[in-house]
Amino acid sequence: MKLATWNVNSLRVRLPQVLDWLTRYRPDVVCLQETKTEDRNFPAAEFEAAGYHVACSGQKTYNGVAIASRRPLKELARTLPDFPDEQKRLIAATVDGVRLINVYVPNGAAVGSEKYDYKLAWLQSLRRYAGVQMKRYPKLALLGDFNIAPEDRDVHDPEAWQGSVLVSGPEREAFRALLELGLVDVFRRFDQPPESFSWWDYRAAAFRRNHGLRIDHILCSRALAETCTCCTIDREPRALERPSDHAPVVAVFR
DNA sequence: ATGGCTTGAGTGTCAAGA
Fold it and tell me: Alpha carbon of A126 to those of A60, A112, A143, A214: distances in Å?
């Protein structure tokens, strides 16, 4: 199984790039974030024509997540059980016995802000949900845009970013708490190029200068991680005209 | 240099992203 995650920053704008990427890379499953599309406007027909089943949870203007899968999507869930919230940031489904939890973790705006507190509370609730789901589904992937760079090597300029949102201590602790459930960051299971990032600011030629962060992740239960044969970041779509600011992350399982 | 681009909403200009 080839599994991917991609924050597309507006599915309406990025749909041609997404469909082209699906046609060329043929992932079995792709998890999308920041679709910014209400469910009634979701381009389901285009995905189905490309050979994918789709499930979405979207809203106007902000957030929104979706899963496209070549095999049927079962046991769909769209909420964190103990976190009542209007923001559409999670969608879970089972594909061929593998549980997939696709998340768009809140950005957090600035350390100490209301949005930052909301991010940490959301992550605490996610940890509880992931723990419960892992007991029920031995093969599980928690993947998406985590808006956290877990270590300094995931940051182009750790000194400049020191203590700020996306890298702050409490955010990294929340990420480690997910790993402590037994989840594995499969990207780090393999040798990777130095300065591997998944997001680059649109401004200041950040992509050209590789001024990025690694904030998009594929975390797998041990049983699933054991079958992972590679995990890579595909930088190509980031170099296109009118790109998303995020690149897809892809993992392959035998 | 707290800017720098991009998107959606909506038609002037701002919030939000990371």
Answer: 23, 20, 12, 20
Indicate if CB(A140) is under 7 A from strand B: no
pLDDT band for position A8 (cuts 50, 70, 90): very high
Average pLDDT over residues A69-98: 97
Query: Coil, strand or helix: which one is A119?
Result: helix
Which of A172, A152, A170 is closest to A112 using CA atoms?
A: A170
Asked if strand B comes closer than 7 Å to A115 Cβ, the answer is yes
pLDDT for residue A22? 98
Task: Report whether A39 contacts A252 (CB < 8 A).
Answer: no
Residues 142-161 of A with CB under 7 A from strand B: 145, 147
Told to judge if A145 belongs to the known catalytic residues of this protein, a careful annotator would answer: yes
Q: Who's near A136: CB < 8 A, 6+ residues apart?
A: A99
Question: C-alpha distances in angstroms, A15 versus A10, A18, A43, A73, A103?
Answer: 8, 5, 8, 21, 20
CB A248 within 8 A of CB A211: no
Of A127, A67, A126, residue with least CA distance to A92? A67
Percent of chain A residues topping a pLDDT of 90: 100
Amino acid at A71: R
- A32/B17 CA-to-C1' distance in Å: 16
What is the per-residue pLDDT for A211?
98
Residue nearest to nucleotide B4 (CA to C1'): A203
In angstroms, the CA A159 to CA A62 distance is 31
